[in-house]
Write a structure and sequence with these properties.
Layout: E1 2-16, H1 19-32, H2 35-38, E2 44-52, E3 56-60, E4 63-80, E5 92-100, E6 106-114
Antiparallel strand pairs: 1-4, 2-4, 3-4, 5-6
Length: 120
């Protein structure tokens, strides 16, 4: 098992038609990304709000909409299962082929298949 750790900042830009709609959307986003809810997501160790921007007007077609930025900091860990190799990448494989010869015996052929290049 290999563990990968990530820490960073998550920025969310929310857009809505007007002031009331951006307030509703902001509350919904804040509820969806609340630390208690985030704690139920496997691998997510921490998700905390760090900034809530002002709802600013932005041009939209012939009118205006509202935009608000929300920022969160996070810590997450991902576990990656590894297949044990016991010594690294397999470079050569021995193959033995046994095929009935039609006379009650077997035709046996042995060969080795080798990977080209340097194993990584």
């Amino acid at each position: 098992m290999r563990s990968e750790r990530y820490a960073g900042e998550l920025g969310v830009a929310a857009f809505a038609a007007d002031g009331a709609a951006i307030e509703t959307l902001t509350r919904q986003l804040d509820d969806a990304l609340a630390p208690a809810r985030a704690a139920t997501i496997p691998g997510l160790a921490r998700l905390e709000p760090t900034a809530l921007g002002a709802a600013v007007p932005v041009p939209l077609g012939s009118g205006t909409a509202r935009r608000r930025e929300l920022t969160y900091s996070f810590d997450a860990e991902r576990e990656v299962p590894l297949v044990p190799g016991g010594g690294g990448v397999v470079v050569t494989v021995a193959v033995v082929s046994r095929v009935p010869d039609g006379l009650g015996g077997l035709d046996i052929e042995e060969l080795e298949i080798t990977r080209e290049g340097t194993p990584t």
